[in-house]
Amino acid sequence: MRLTATWAEYCSPRIEADADWTAEIMIRFVHTADWQLGMAPKFLNDEARARFAAARIDIIGTIGALARKTGCDFVVVAGDVFESNQVDRATVRRALDTMAEAGLPFFLLPGNHDPLEPGSVFRTDPFLSHQPANVRVLEGGGPVVPMAGVEIVGAPWLSKRPVRDLVGEACRDLAPVEAGVRIVVGHGAVDMLSPDSRSPQMIRVERLEDVLSRHCVHYVALGDRHSTTKIGQSDAIWYSGAPEPTDFTEIDAGNVLVVELDRGSVGVAPHRVGTWHFVDKVVDVNGSEDIAQVANWLSDQSSKSTTLIRLAPVGTVGLQRKAMLDVLIEEEGHRFAAILLRASRSDLVVMPQDSDFSDLGLSGFAASTVARLREQASGHDGEAAQNALSLLYRLAGGDPG
Q: Rounded to two decimals, what is the model's pTM?
């Protein structure tokens, strides 16, 4: 259901025909990005995946409530509103309904996940036929005026693989602002943080600092980097980070920024809004005492149902202790959203001992298989054999202790 007000009527208290654009203006808004609505990691089970996807919709309501509480005038979403242009209809409808209920303007920038190309989610019937009056897509082609004295310049992605600096291009012809403030909303990697700084699509920080110094722009709201990050020497170039985390590699996700801006100053305050947690943990495992410590650490974690754990065990154990660890992860995994093993940094060496199989009474083919796997397990590429031995130990009724 569309909001009954038109955009002009919605903003009418702030946009007046005789507004004095030369007057000093101070605004406050929420800068957010990388919602990636519709995202659901494949390593989650069906139940956790549904909750994870729902949380990404629910965070819109949280952002709206924060905006109202802090007296913000509007919300800018700096790209990747949706996980892809193939997101399902229900996700689009629920997102639009939640923004409508938030009761203030939202400005959405297409990013690399949802570029404004043919077939873009922003041009589909589920979006266009249910787009509320308080939601606008930043399609480029000129500034948008959300209120008197404020311009928003968007640098949308028009394809998955742009061949130029879209943000720099959007700023190229901007003249100094004589009155009011101007915000640029962009998406992508900046050259100073990228190993491929010479790529033509990199956002050039020097260009942004130049337009800021000449008062052509007063704040640059960026998306793509999921960790909250200030860029360069200026206080006016920020990545907000993703409001809900998406990966174990993110340093400071789960935030949005409340930005207070006038012609002479900018204040940026991060606010924690995320409800899910990605936790990476290296654990020493050399005996039963170490496994007990891992069990205690897992037990101490809060918000287990919305926490994903990735363990990197380090140490040397026999099959019995390995079985203890496997059982622990399997049992605790039911309490958490997921517990994964980080194979790329797992330095846990499984060294089968005679005592591991002495009480199992194996003979014939099973005994010869154990002997062959033990020989392979001590080799250079013995991880597969170690895993096979651990599984065989459990299937044969080995006591994990």
A: 0.84
